[in-house]
Amino acid sequence: MAIRNSNFFLLILLLSSSINAFNLPELAPTEYCRFPLPGSKCKTEVEVYVNRLNSFESVLSYEYSYFPFCTVNDEPSPIENLGQVLIGERIQPSPYKFNFLINYNCRYVCTKKFTSTDANQQKMLKRLMKGIILNYQQHWILDNMPITLCYKNTENLEFCSRSFPIGCYVIDFFFKDETWKSTFGEDSSRIISAKIQVNSLNSNRCDRTTGPVMFQSTSKDIEIPFTYSVKFIKTNEIYWASRWDYILKSLPQTRIQWFSILNSLVVVLFLSGIVAIILLRTLCKDNPRYSRIVGTGSTKEQFGWKLIDGDVFRPPQKDILLSTLVGNGVQIAMTFLITLVFAALDFLSPDKPGALLTCLILCYVLLGTPAGYTSARLYKMFGGANWKKIALTTAITCPSLIFVILFVLNLVLWLNVSSATIPCTTFLALLALWFCISTPLVFIGAYLGFKRSVYKNPVPINQIRRQVPEQPFYTKPLLSILANGIFSFGCIMIQLFFILNSIWVHQYYHYFGFLLVVYIILIITCSETTIFLCYFHLCTEDYNWWWRSFLTSGSTAVYFFLYSGFYFATKLEISDGVSTFLYFGYTLMLTFILFLFTDIKTRNTFTTLPYSTQAMMRSVICYFVFILLNITVRVNSQICQGMSQYDQCSTNSACGCLHMMNAVDSGICGFLWVTCSELVPCTSGTNRCHEPGHICVHHPQCNSLPICYPVSMIDQRICPSITMTNTTITTTTQQWGKHYINAL
Prior knowledge:
six-stranded antiparallel sheet; single chain; 4 domains; transmembrane; signal
């Protein structure tokens, strides 16, 4: 075992040519100069900051001062944003300082002594030895950039890591010497890159003929001298605006990322096409099938979703819970969307650590209004009357569960003295954001949602619940839900691998533009699979679709959890129980968030959209329901939505709105002047027509009884469509001794 930090070479590249590039105000480059210049704001001293240490073999991260390194105690630490604190970054000043453009050779810092009789020193030495065995990595920062350790892999390609190990560990505790290569550049007094070469020399004079610092046991006194050297090299090949490129391009996943994303998009588009084709072909098959049933007058084979039109919009069980989950899902989905847009526009670039998580939290807090609005609209449609109750459950339920998981994990981190422990002040700040900003916004959204008129179902609900027939095994809820969830998971599986790498292997992920595309495709795929599953179950006369549609796309989270377990077993080298508990604890929290996100594709989530968009979507839904409820009628007819019986719906004044079966304010536009004595009543109980070319409607002239109306009387050639306006025109007809209001 040997410590590699005894003597390292810090080499900094500077570029000489000036550049003009777009930079956000907080990202303006820092100008350096060798000597102070009058009236100039350039800096002469270059400061190196140290960050937390983490390992690929443990989830626990530690502060730099946790290990026996050279530190400074009289300088304040830089201010960290909320995201940095939550991910465990602890940036501290270091004793490694030097002047710009001045080279240093073997500059002494300090010596750490470990005597065999001092219990505290032996404790620190054992801590250092354990850190070397677990391959803990140091993260140093210079000019807001990571100091990288670069070397060539087996394919002779340069790989640059933004961290470097404490030391080297082998089975026989012998030191294994390694050579590290570094590169540098300069651009008009701006630091372009910082690369490090680490060595272990048992001397404070940087004598390379001496052996490495080795310790196989704690029974002997050990001294570890720390020195460093600095070398500046000027180059015109690298520009300040692209100084991150050499780090991002050398990441191990970069070269396969393009192929992986392209492959993912092709698979997702192919899957979306298959789902759409299946849905369309299924509907097209039903059309001739039901037409044959009507034509033959057979009642024996009548089955499917047409028999449950009076139960399909029946409110689900635990409607307040469903409304709450849908509202929180909308909040999370909008949070992801806004954050991905900012990240794709490079506002959340790698040189702003913690900015991504900070943006996620702030967006989530500020989007409480859409969550409350969606929950209230859905809850009111289910018949709920207490808007304060739904607002409270939306604001408290899901965030409370995440908060409890986070608190338990934080307690484990605190017991293990990890730098990832969230301070009490940060917890108080999160609670303040939750209760002082997010919760009031949820109440505002719920209040606005309840002020809107309730959404009316296309058909009324039967008073007596219809018994669901026995279902075949392949339509069982659990099996069908899990079977459909795998399609949505296939959209994101490849991207999940790289995202998990960025979380647990500490690699950069910066392909947010592609991730935004995958986000959109995921929503489309979830919607299509949910529609297909709902239609499939409605055809088996099972009208319990609310929770099933909610859980269908939500089952994507189940596959995410299983994949995370596979990733843990095959990609990570974690073996201790604490790290395993933390890994699956954080995975459980991410699974719940993904579950809520993929569940926003429920029936009334469109209520969060602007009014014009709502009107358009309502029209689409009404026409879709109209096609489903009248698929037996093979005629070019038009729907009259939002009209009363007999309202004028065509430029032909002899045409009016005829309600279908028990429909409320919706029906078909048909020619009114028929002889009731020539019409056949609909079948009692089922309201079906067995006469070829007829459909069951209500006709006021025929005592408003369900009668089988000729299909030829509802053709648009007889009743052309009319342009609807906000003007109300009252006409009078005395055909049956009543006045009828005709809304145009």
